[in-house]
């Protein structure tokens, strides 16, 4: 597991230099050959389901990797997905497109929504009815997951499965205010993108939308890549917007360890157990 991906507190001057390091943070050696077999949910984009045993209903958690909006390799999320399945959660890390694929916003968010649609359909194919449709993201993947849940009505992707509405979000060390992470986040946009485009893709500015969606935000107190203040600020904005938002700053965790099974599996599973109500209707 990679930890301590960058040595310095990010400022506008150094965030650009950290961008590639952020891409490495979520990458890692993970399990291969998930059951059922990995598959494409969109052409060229893979999903890796981990199915809990002996359940007929479960939360469906689609897991979106970080990569500073430049890449999105989910291998490092596999141990956490396995730990979720052991706890009765259907978990599915996915590949989404990023700047290295010559795409910009809204394409990465559309991929996230198609992955969630595939997660719901795959769970049902396995005889599991979704209890909740949850997006979990790390770093830039947390930003994209939050945006997909809050601003879902802005997007109309063409997916291979019926669209569904995300109804809960777990964010791990997310840069939710992209104004504060502008050097790295600039790759999310075409050159010359205006303020309105940036604001539309900024979760902290959209925290008042879809207040029925609960959020769990986890952050490590040793994170020197994306400081914990990003989560505490976003949590406050969400609560002001009417959301149920839980923020946990975990001791002795950093940007690379926050998505480990040891750090995240139990608090996320406990939070999911505490959520009431059925999954959202398909949209």
Automatic annotation (TrEMBL):
<protein>
    <submittedName>
        <fullName>Alpha/beta hydrolase</fullName>
    </submittedName>
</protein>
<dbReference type="InterPro" id="IPR029058">
    <property type="entry name" value="AB_hydrolase_fold"/>
</dbReference>
<keyword id="KW-0378">Hydrolase</keyword>
<feature type="signal peptide">
    <location>
        <begin position="1"/>
        <end position="27"/>
    </location>
</feature>
<dbReference type="InterPro" id="IPR049492">
    <property type="entry name" value="BD-FAE-like_dom"/>
</dbReference>
<feature type="domain" description="BD-FAE-like">
    <location>
        <begin position="56"/>
        <end position="237"/>
    </location>
</feature>
<dbReference type="InterPro" id="IPR050300">
    <property type="entry name" value="GDXG_lipolytic_enzyme"/>
</dbReference>
<keyword id="KW-0732">Signal</keyword>
<dbReference type="GO" id="GO:0016787">
    <property type="term" value="F:hydrolase activity"/>
</dbReference>
<dbReference type="Pfam" id="PF20434">
    <property type="entry name" value="BD-FAE"/>
</dbReference>
